[in-house]
Automatic annotation (TrEMBL):
Keywords: Coiled coil, Extracellular matrix, Secreted, Signal, Sulfation
Segments for region (Disordered): 49-88, 94-113
Family designation: Belongs to the UCMA family.
Location of the protein in the cell: Secreted, Extracellular space, Extracellular matrix
InterPro entries: UCMA
Pfam families assigned: UCMA
Signal peptide boundaries: 1-18
Major place of residence: secreted
Protein name: Unique cartilage matrix-associated protein
Gene transcribed to yield this protein: UCMA
Parts of the chain that traverse the membrane: none
Length: 122
């Protein structure tokens, strides 16, 4: 082996070793970051239990909240009703157009069959 080959081989092996070490350190840092994320997302069991207990003892809704929810439900019902009415009207118009087209094509067919017996000019 020449010095050139030895130098290239040692340089390549050093590069591979450094990249492996870098991957190991980033992987270890990633595990620490995931532990921090878990702690931020999930709360302790005791905290969750206290939260649920407090929600159970919460006071009933005020009349304003009840009225606001009622108005929202009425508005949603009205919008739903308008949507379905519009859909029904569009379908009725479509059916009417189809029937008109069918009647027109039947009339043309009748005229053509009558013209077959007689000499008609349009």
């Amino acid at each position: 082996m020449t010095w050139r080959q030895v130098f290239l081989l040692s340089g390549f092996s050093a590069l591979v070793l450094m990249s492996m070490l870098r991957e190991g350190t980033t992987q270890a840092a990633g595990e620490e970051a995931s532990e921090d994320a878990k702690q931020k997302i999930f709360m302790q069991e005791s905290d969750a239990s206290n939260f649920l207990k407090r929600r159970g003892k919460r006071s009933p809704k005020s009349q304003d909240e009840v009225n606001a929810e009622g108005r929202q439900e009425l508005r949603a019902d009205e919008l739903r009703r308008e949507y379905h009415e519009e859909q029904r009207n569009e379908f009725e118009n479509f059916v009417e157009e189809q029937n008109d087209d069918q009647r027109e094509s039947e009339a043309v067919g009748v005229q053509q069959s009558m013209c077959g017996r007689q000499r008609c000019h349009f």
